[in-house]
Amino acid sequence: MKPLLPRAALLLAALLPLLAGAQTLDRVRASGTFTLGYLPNQPPFTATEGEGASGYAIDLCQKVADQLRTQPGLASLKVRFVPLAPDKALDVVRDGGVDLLCSPMVETLRRRQDVAFSQPVYTAGIGVVLRKNAPLSLVKVLNGEVEQTGPTWRATLNRGLAAHSFAVQGGTPVETWAREKLRLLKLLVTLETVASPVEGVDQVASGKVDAFFANQMILRSLVARDTANTNLMVLDRRFEFEPVSLAMARGDEDFRLQVDTALSQLYRSGGIMPLYSKYFGTPSELDQTLFKVYSRP
Predict the structure, then answer these.
(1) pLDDT of residue 188
(2) CA–CA separation, 55 vs 113, rounded Å?
(3) Pairing of strands 165-169, 211-215
(4) pTM beyond 0.85
């Protein structure tokens, strides 16, 4: 029989992930380097560029670095980018392998067991991709611009959608959402299922379906990183809302405060406007309102 570990050793083992991130500012100050993790294939949010990285969320992380440089002993802070695999990224954050994950993720209760999150940096959710030459009537319906005509509104929707085919990834919450909407609205449309978001976007590009519904962040990334998709567009409309945030190690409120301070100052100063516009176009009134909601005074 193996000897039992002393209680103190067991406690230390349980606390190691917390200790790894509990002194982020001290670690950054000692090394003089701010280590940023990112997913290399998630444009326009994060992407590899030479020996560094670029994208909307990378620019946000650079603002965090600027905020840290205002702190004692960090004026000459350097930034290092570390590409991470999607299935390992949060583990690396949890264990202190990087100081901040720049690729935004949805803050779930399950993920909060392992890592902490900043205030939201983008509002994702269910979006739709279609061809740029799609009929204007279809674009208007998907943008929610259907003219309401009293009791005939359902027929109006069917006239706008029935002639078209749509796709979702099978076995996902998006499929459940789509089928429930079709049931409630009694819409007579063709709904196909595909095996992956890549297949769904390809189906739209090739003309096999007219639109594909999926997470808007995924759609933006797939369209942005493939030059063959220049004939596609992702509508700004979100059918369901899903804010995404930057992940960091748990148990370090001093560091989290610096991250949220940088983001709040960017939102409240209006500096977010040109940055957001650079990657997504002029933010809508809703997005501008959400910037204010997400910021802290």
Answers:
(1) 72
(2) 28
(3) parallel
(4) no
